[in-house]
Design goal:
Layout (H helix, E strand, L loop, with lengths): L5 E5 L3 H12 L3 E5 L5 H19 L11 E4 L2 H7 L2 E4 L5 H14 L5 E4 L6 H5 L8 E5 L9 E6 L5 H13 L3 E5 L8 H17 L5 H9 L2 H5 L4 H8 L4 H9 L17 H15 L4 H21 L3 H17 L1
Parallel strand pairs: 1-2, 1-4, 2-3, 4-5, 5-6, 7-8
Antiparallel strand pairs: 6-7
Helix pairs in contact: 1-2, 2-13, 3-4, 10-11, 13-14
The structure holds nicotinamide-adenine-dinucleotide (NAD).
């Protein structure tokens, strides 16, 4: 597969902007394509906004000089210039397939084509494309420039060499590659997040709690733990000396109790209003930009603490530092 020096981006909204910031900071050139010419200013602004937090996160690391950014409204122009393409167009199957087909027809056959899709399966995206063996899912998390996780999912036609090449590329940008063994709608993380979101919507619908109270039930408790240990490891510890087996014995029977609804409620106008008005009240007059800045400060600080303990995303940060040191030698 082609050595990656230039990353092509297809779609430069929230996620494309995040990929641009991360790739440029890691020293890759970026050629970004979006059908909407107004996205060029937005993208340059997004990269600029991300830079201070990225700088603090990677302080003291042996990063190469930042890459160069260019923008086009012509996806084909991007596809011929790119060594790998990351697709970030809206989550609509027909839109994605048309956009992917356009770039697959003109990109060299050794150019990786990666999709940021939150839930589509790679086999459905790659079917009928030119050289489907270089097509796979690389699902990131917002903000892409600070969250290291990328779920890597192969489709039926994907070559293992493409998976390996994509994984090396993501690691070179400081990411934590989670290989998803089996393609399923929603991959791994979004299935878990959606299960929780469904319960949130039920709680709003049944007037059990406000969005603020539901968020408090995460932030002051389980959320503090999730940054460094997942639910399974945490539950093992919660079993005390008896560990996971005791936990299963104690809480397993609760699964038969009506603690969760499983099926989503109808998205009535009332439920949508409760969600929108509740989160606006929580924001307390702060704009999305203000909230993003607070989020970024916290994400950097948490990862630096975790790095001191070499755990979770801090471990990924330390591994990136070692990789850069080895390359700088
Ligand atoms: N927002 C998130 O939190 C998040 C997280 C992980 C993955 N994703 C996934 O990333 C993808 C993009 O999501 P987003 O939130 O960045 O969307 P977005 O709406 O912010 O951006 C999409 C961009 O694609 C452009 N576009 C549309 N059709 C195009 C085409 N044919 N060619 C080129 N550009 C085109 C639009 O002009 C827009 O700028 C989706 O698949 C989504 O599921 C989103």
């Amino acid at each position: 597969m082609k050595t990656i020096r230039t990353l092509g981006l297809l779609g430069t909204g929230v996620i494309g902007g995040g990929w641009a910031a991360r790739a440029l900071h890691a020293g890759f050139d970026v050629v970004a394509a979006d059908l909407n010419p107004a996205m060029e200013d937005w993208l340059r602004g997004a990269v600029e906004t991300a830079a201070p937090a990225l700088g603090r996160l990677t302080e003291g690391m042996a990063l190469p000089p930042p890459g160069r950014l260019s923008f086009t409204t012509d996806p084909a122009e991007m596809a011929v210039a790119a060594d790998a393409i990351q697709e970030n167009v809206p989550e609509v199957m027909d839109v994605k397939r048309a956009a992917l087909s356009r770039v697959a027809d003109v990109a060299g056959e050794d150019v990786l084509i990666l999709s940021s899709t939150s839930g589509f399966m790679p086999s459905d995206l790659q079917a009928g494309l030119a050289h489907p063996e270089r097509v796979l899912v690389g699902h990131p998390f917002n903000p892409v420039y600070l969250c290291p996780l990328v779920e890597v999912v192969a489709g039926k036609a994907t070559a293992e060499t493409a998976v390996a090449h994509a994984s090396d590329f993501y690691r070179a940008m400081g990411m934590e590659v989670l290989r998803v063994r089996k393609e399923v709608p929603g991959h791994l993380s979004d299935r878990l997040q959606e299960a929780m979101w469904r319960e949130i919507l039920h709680s709003l619908n049944d007037d059990i709690a406000t969005t603020g109270e539901l968020d408090a039930s995460i932030v002051y408790g389980p959320g503090l733990r999730w940054a460094f240990m997942g639910m399974n490891q945490i539950y093992m510890i919660a079993g005390g000396e008896g560990g996971a087996r005791h936990f299963m014995e104690q809480f397993g029977p609760c699964l038969d109790e009506p603690w969760s609804y499983l099926k989503a409620p109808d998205l009535s106008p009332e439920i949508i209003d409760r969600f929108v008005e509740g989160t606006a009240a929580q924001a307390g007059g702060k704009s999305v930009r203000d909230l993003e800045a607070i989020r970024d400060e916290c994400l950097v600080a948490i990862q630096q603490v975790l790095a001191r303990h070499d755990i979770g995303a801090g471990r990924t940060l330390n591994a990136w530092g070692r990789l850069l040191d080895a390359e700088a030698r």
